[in-house]
Design a protein that fits this description.
Shape: elongated
CATH class of the largest domain: Mainly Alpha
Order of helices and strands: HHHHHHHHHHH
Number of domains: 2
Helix content: 55-70%
CATH topology of the largest domain: Rna Polymerase Sigma Factor, Chain: A
Radius of gyration: 19 Å
């Protein structure tokens, strides 16, 4: 089965399935409906490819892992439990593929945490970089925007993998705690503690103090 980025299926196919839920499409794909599978790939290609690119820090590798992800989905399609939310299931597979890829190349990922918001999200979305900038900094002490982003990227790269991945899922992908927990296969409490620890470590590194900041950085659940 062929999948790819950015064009994989015709607009005619995706248009005919546009009103169907992920779960309906996957159920149809399990029954051998190729158009349903292709529509699911098309629906997630921008979102999932963007996540992988930020996780891996390499556009070419991200494209490879995106395709590997949907090949794995195709292989595991009969293991899918009917009624289970599809999005976290896809992210679980994609994350495992990305982790394996990073281990193979034996390097750390460079990530971008400028969250743009999910397609269709209302209002402006703050990036993690914006949230970590102290509002009471004096002009002479404040770094330029680009310097702040660079400092944040470097700080994130120094985090252990379990902290980096929870930041990407909770902030950039805007997943709820329960969905992050399903992707990472850990309890919700572990997601919360890792996220708080990760943000605290970043704040301590970037600003020297995390006092009062963690509550403001808590994603909506």
């Amino acid at each position: 089965m062929e999948v790819g980025v950015p064009q994989t299926v015709s607009s005619e196919v995706t248009g005919s399935n546009a009103g169907l839920t992920d779960e309906v499409l996957l159920e149809a794909a399990r029954g051998g409906d190729r158009d349903a599978f292709d529509s699911l790939v098309h629906r997630y290609e921008k979102e999932l490819y963007g996540y992988l690119r930020r996780y891996l820090g390499d556009a070419v590798l991200a494209e490879d892992i995106f395709q590997n992800t949907f090949l794995k989905v195709y292989e595991k399609i009969h293991q899918y439990e009917p009624g289970r939310p599809v999005r976290p299931w896809l992210y679980t597979i994609a994350t495992h593929q990305a982790v394996d890829a990073l281990r193979r190349v034996n390097r750390r990922s460079a990530v971008s945490l400028d969250r743009k918001g999910s397609p269709g999200a209302e209002g402006d979305q703050s990036s993690l970089a914006d949230l970590l900038v102290s509002r009471d900094q004096s002009p002479q002490d404040a770094l330029s925007q680009e310097e702040q982003k660079q400092a944040l990227r470097m700080a994130v790269e120094e985090l252990p993998e379990l902290y980096r991945e929870v930041l990407l899922l909770a902030y950039y992908q805007e997943m709820k705690y329960k969905d992050v927990a399903e992707v990472l296969r850990v309890p919700v409490g572990t997601v919360k503690s890792r996220l708080h620890a990760a943000v605290g470590k970043l704040l301590l590194k970037l600003r020297g103090s995390a006092d009062g900041a963690l509550a403001a950085l808590d994603p909506q659940d």
